[in-house]
Amino acid sequence: MENDIIMTAGHCITDAAKCADTKFVFGFAVKSAGGAAATAVPVSEVYSCKKIIKRDLTNPTGILSGIAALIGSMINGGTGPDYALVQLDRKVSGHKPPADKPEPAPGQRRQAVRDRPPGGPAG
Is 123 inside any structural domain? Predict the structure, then answer.
């Protein structure tokens, strides 16, 4: 990946207008167990969505579609993709992408990745 492209949830950025209104904040973290999250970050850590490169959201909405998604999830192991690849307004500096994680040990499973930190802004 380039250092100006990131992946987020497809339901968070649904079209060009939502992209234009979306900001990505780096450096927002809880640095120690039981600590508080930063309440301010430098403006240099705030990036804008420049454009949607690719987006897939095949999760249906609505009550009947939700029931169908639940049944499909039970049969197929999931309701479908929910992602968006977006290009940022500039290259990210001062941060490295997370390293690839090794395969989990036998009997263990991968943990889900949150699209925001606990208590952080919703997508």
Answer: no
What is the chain's pLDDT, residue by residue, as a tens digit (123 residues)? 468 999 988 888 889 999 999 999 988 778 888 888 878 889 999 999 999 999 887 755 555 555 555 555 555 555 667 888 999 999 998 888 776 666 666 666 655 444 554 444 544
Q: Using CB atoms within 10 A of its CB, is residue 7 exposed (0-12), middle (13-18) or buried (19+)?
A: middle
Q: Please report, for residues 13, 25, 42, 62, the alpha-carbon distance to residue 20 in angstroms, rounded to integers and kept in the order given.
A: 9, 15, 20, 26
Domain residue limits at 50:
5-33+42-88
Residue 113 is assigned to a structural domain of this protein: no
Residue 108 placed within a domain: no
Residue 99 lies in a domain: no
Closest CA to 55 of 79, 75, 81, 18: 81
Q: State if pTM tops 0.70.
A: no
